[in-house]
């Protein structure tokens, strides 16, 4: 993604879409060339593996990862990420967790922290998942996906106040289309009408001059305001 936008809210919104890379103006020809060369090199190393994953040929993806993972490979971390994804798809959770734990311990990579939490979630280890997502947020305090997952597992554990707190923190970082999304709905559902009204109000204010302006935010804000 190439853009002239560089505000924190926009950047965080972009990162949630998982772009291959993000380049903000102004930049030089040399910077652009270097970034493109890096992406092309990554595609050369991992393209066949990504296709295999998309086509659900998981065993083949694992085999290709092992073949590519040589001492001179520049994309070892990306190969490990793809390998872990294949293990998760095959429900080989211990193997996936071993990769996530190794990478997060050494590099504190976001994908490894999130992956560890998701693997525990899939095994219904919600307490372990919460610990993994909390650990990810210690290393990456603005990782919005981790806040969402943490709120989800805290809800399943019955800690609704903590879930709302996680979503409230995330909504402070998010772009308009995400501001207060789950926090607002959760607050409205649980009868916390003042909190819901404030959260939906933030969504209305942020979206008023953008493409994310929707009638739904106004309606739900009105519903919350009518309750107190």
Describe this structure in words.
The structure is a single chain. The chain is an all-alpha fold. The protein has a two-stranded parallel ribbon with strand order 1-2. α1 links the parallel β1 and β2. α2 runs parallel beside α4 and α6 packs antiparallel against α7. The radius of gyration is 20 Å and the shape is globular. It starts with a strand and ends with a helix. 36% of the residues are buried.
User: Unreliable stretches, pLDDT < 50, 5 or more residues?
Assistant: 175-180
State the separation between the terminal residues, measured CA to CA: 44 Å
Order of helices and strands: EHEHHHHHHHHHHH
State which percent range the strand residues make up. under 5%
SSE topology:
Elements: E1 2-3, H1 8-15, E2 23-24, H2 29-54, H3 58-68, H4 76-89, H5 93-107, H6 110-122, H7 126-139, H8 144-156, H9 160-173, H10 181-189, H11 193-207, H12 215-225
Parallel strand pairs: 1-2
Helix pairs in contact: 2-3, 2-4, 3-4, 4-5, 4-6, 5-6, 6-7, 6-8, 7-8, 8-9, 9-10, 10-11, 11-12
């Amino acid at each position: 993604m190439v853009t002239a936008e560089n505000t924190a809210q926009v950047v965080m919104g972009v990162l949630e879409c998982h772009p291959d890379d993000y380049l903000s103006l102004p930049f030089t020809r040399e910077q652009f060339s270097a970034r493109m060369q890096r992406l092309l090199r990554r595609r050369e190393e991992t393209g066949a593996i990504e296709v295999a994953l998309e086509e659900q040929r998981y065993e083949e993806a694992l085999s290709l990862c092992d073949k590519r993972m040589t001492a001179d490979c520049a994309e070892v971390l990306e190969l490990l990420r793809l390998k872990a994804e294949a293990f998760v798809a095959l429900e080989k959770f211990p193997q996936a967790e071993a990769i996530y734990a190794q990478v997060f311990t050494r590099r504190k990579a976001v994908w490894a922290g999130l992956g560890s939490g998701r693997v525990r979630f899939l095994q219904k280890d919600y307490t372990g998942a919460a610990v993994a997502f909390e650990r990810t947020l210690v290393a990456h305090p603005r990782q919005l996906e981790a806040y969402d997952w943490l709120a989800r597992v805290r809800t399943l554990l019955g800690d609704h106040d903590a879930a709302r707190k996680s979503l409230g923190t995330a909504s402070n970082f998010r772009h308009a289309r995400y501001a207060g999304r789950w926090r607002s709905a959760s607050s409205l559902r649980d009868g916390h009408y003042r909190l819901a009204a404030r959260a939906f109000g933030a969504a209305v204010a942020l979206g008023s001059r953008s493409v994310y302006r929707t009638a739904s935010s106004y309606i739900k804000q009105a519903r919350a305001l009518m309750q107190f």
